[in-house]
Amino acid sequence: MNLMNLIDGPSAAIVLGGTLVATWLRAGNRDCRTTLRQLCQLGRRRFDAAATRAELALQVQEIRQDGLLRAQPHRFGDSEFDDATDALIGRRSVGALIEAHEAHRARRIAQSERAVRTLAQAAELAPVFGLAGTLVSLSQLPSEGLARGAFMGTISMAVVTTLYGLLAANLVFAPLARILERAAQAEEAERQEVIDWLAAQVSEALPVQRRQRREYPGSLNGDLPPYDIESAA
User: CA triplet 124, 128, 134: central angle to 5 degrees?
Assistant: First the structure.
């Protein structure tokens, strides 16, 4: 088997060029830019949960010592946790912390879905342009016939173009879409774990939580405060 026969520049140009142009026309500039940005981030770690938790530990220690009224928000270089701690200290509410997290999470998921959708469209279009390249190659056959060598070259290009379309779809675009999807899911799981830890750490510093813990020691563990039937009556 001669692998050099599988290398064909015009076939690659038809399949890859046509797929990229058609994907850009379908998805638009915004989704294409988002996809490129997401692909560029695959080579480096998107979120370091251990480092972020270590940075947040300083903020938690300050909140526990000085309380939320005197605490100053720290900057960690992560826009989500910067906004989340600003909301926590500014509004003195764990709910504000969770709300800021959910807003950033929704934006990240939307960007990830756009990138995955764009690559999925490319995976759908690649075999189509493989077939288009095959038809272009066959259209070059002259009606009056040609020599055996030229005929075999035309058929070879037609077959290789179809092969390129299948390989591009199933070994490039579809796998990249799944890689981006898995990376986004892993990042969200790590971020959610850090947010849950942060909320649990700072909840004891909130005035309402302190009073609730003092009056009803089991309330923060999910137990309801005692209900006085006589006073209710």
Answer: 150
| C-alpha to C-alpha distance for 21 and 150, rounded to whole angstroms | 30
Are the CB atoms for 174 and 123 separated by under 8 Å? yes
**Tokens at 43, concatenated:** 């080579």
Q: Which parts of the chain register pLDDT below 50?
A: 209-233
Helices 174-202 and 79-91, axial angle in degrees (round to 10): 30
Region of residue 225 (phi > 0: left; psi between -120 and 50: alpha; otherwise: beta): beta
Residue 134, Cβ neighbours under 10 Å: how many?
Answer: 22
Sequence-separated (6 or more) residues with CB below 8 Å from residue 166? 126, 127, 130
pLDDT for 229 = 30
Q: How far is CA 106 from CA 58, 93, 110, in A?
A: 27, 20, 6
Residues in CB range of 126: below 8 A, 6 or more apart: 15, 19, 164, 165, 166, 168, 169, 172, 173
- Determine the Cα–Cα distance for residues 183 and 53; give it in Å rounded to an integer: 20
Residue 26: is it exposed, middle or buried by C-beta count within 10 angstroms (0-12/13-18/19+)? middle
Task: Report the C-alpha gap between 138 and 215 in whole angstroms.
Answer: 84
Choose among 81, 75, 79, 63: nearest CA to 210. Answer: 63
Structure tokens given for 189:
């799981």
Q: How far are the Cα atoms of 66, 136, 201 from residue 102, in angstroms, in the given order?
A: 27, 50, 19
pLDDT, position 31: 95
Amino acid identity for residue 138 in this structure:
L
